Amino acid sequence: MDWGMKNRLSQLIKPNGRCMYLPIDHGYFQGPTTKLERPGETIKPILEYSDALFCTRGVLRACINPQNSKPIILRISGGTSMVGKDLANEEITTSMEEALRLNVSGVGLSVFIGSDYEKETLLNLAKVVNEAERYGMPVMAVTAVGKELEKRDARYLALCCRICAELGAKVVKTYWCENFEKVTNGCPVPVVMAGGPKVGSDREVFEFVHDGMQKGSIGVNLGRNIWQNEHPVPMIKALRAIIHENATVDKADKIFNEAKKNK
């Protein structure tokens, strides 16, 4: 592995082998999502607690201060929307030249395994990896399921993650599920957990993140469960404690509730 690749990965994965990514890329297919209408304002109070930001080039240029930023993972796939026919029909929207121009630490794109566009999105990943390796750019593959959330079981996600690793992704973002160790054990590159739609309670978030960390994940890529929360700063502080300080669910719950009181 060349110096540039090692350097970029060291920005994305901390010395303890853990990471906390903050995604705000949802607008590329959802439009102005609730609480993300003004991305720059949304992340102001919580950015300092993240290790990297996952966003599109448009939001990066328009909303992120280049003099006070975290490492960037650039969303480079898209071309579909919630009102379109099929979310899986994505293509590459942003060139490697653009990623280098923006001085990002990594690029990310979605694959839709089991969909009508499985082949196309996997070839997107393979082609991006070919180019990224040439320039020392880490690639994060995102195992997307579109609107079919019932697909999120260990057997399916293990298949997805392994294929992404086989095609050359340096990190894979996937959903937490029951028996999550089956997903991480079969994937030879680091796995980070996605959040998906906001869950029913704050403690549920702490529970699945803690379980995933115990079963082999290196961290999270959580957005809505943080910035759509009524208390985003206490939430991200509590999650950071699980990831970087090995906090228990009870400890995270305590940190969350104390931080709410001290606002």
Description:
There is one protein chain. The protein is α/β, with parallel strands linked by helices and 263 residues long. The chain has a single domain (3-261), classed as TIM Barrel, CATH 3.20.20.70. The chain is 43% helix and 15% strand. The protein contains twelve helices and ten strands. It has an eight-stranded parallel barrel with strand order 1-2-3-6-7-8-9-10, surrounded by six helices. It has a two-stranded antiparallel sheet with strand order 4-5. The longest helix is centred in the middle third of the chain and has 18 residues, at 118-135. It is globular, with a radius of gyration of 17 Å.
Span between termini: 45 Å
Fraction in beta strands: 15-25%
- Superfamily (CATH H level) name: Aldolase class I
What do we call the CATH topology? TIM Barrel
- Find the structural class using helix and strand composition: alpha/beta
Widest sheet, order of strands? 1-2-3-6-7-8-9-10
CATH class: Alpha Beta
Question: Over the alpha carbons, how many angstroms does the gyration radius reach?
Answer: 17 Å
Mean pLDDT: 95
Q: Judging from the principal axes of the Cα atoms, what is the shape? A: globular
Helix content: 40-55%
What ranges have pLDDT less than 50 throughout 5 or more consecutive residues? none
User: Can you tell me the CATH architecture?
Assistant: Alpha-Beta Barrel
H and E string: HEHHEHEEEHEHEHEHEHEHHH
Contiguous helical run count: 12
Which quaternary structure do these chains form? Answer: single chain
Largest sheet: 8 strands, parallel, barrel
